[in-house]
Amino acid sequence: MKSQTIASALLLSLLVAAPTLRAQDNGAAPAAPAPDASAAPQAAPAAEDKTDLEKQMDIINKAFRKLRGQIKDASQNAASIALVGQIHDAATAALDLTPKKEKDLPDADQAKFHADFQAGLKDFITQVDALTAALTANDNDQAATLLQQLGQTERKDHKQFKKVEKKD
Questions:
Q1: Per-residue model confidence as pLDDT tens digits over 37-74
Q2: Are residues 76 and 70 in contact, defined by beta-carbon separation less than 8 angstroms?
Q3: Residue 163 in 3-state DSSP?
Q4: Helix (H) or strand (E) holding 48
Q5: What domains sit in the chain, N to C, each tagged with a CATH number?
């Protein structure tokens, strides 16, 4: 069975590579398509379109996902504390930033929205600090509970403060 799979994979790779090999054998280089000056410019990668706040939230999200997989493992507490530190730093940096949704609000509502956004982040940071304390004390059950609460806070705050982007 293994040999059939290997043989199939080898045959498939030869079929895919054959046109390139044949072109090289003839001395002809594979022709690259000429750039079309009238073509619309390529869209910039999504990372370049992100706001500073979205970049900070991406840092939080990445660390949060890793943390979820290792929070109960006491042998990983040093790494978990480092991840919680990344979350803390990104959330603190986000305090000075403005959500996209704020700009869509009437001028009269923007100040309250921003104050609420900052209060939500400060509450989030307080929860992050409690998570650090639990991990430092090697109380991984409490840390897992706190991480779950952080996830709930994140979902609630995203509903309130995150602009819903329309998909094309």
A1: 444 445 544 556 889 999 999 999 999 999 999 999 99
A2: yes
A3: coil
A4: helix 46-49
A5: 51-161 (1.20.120.10)
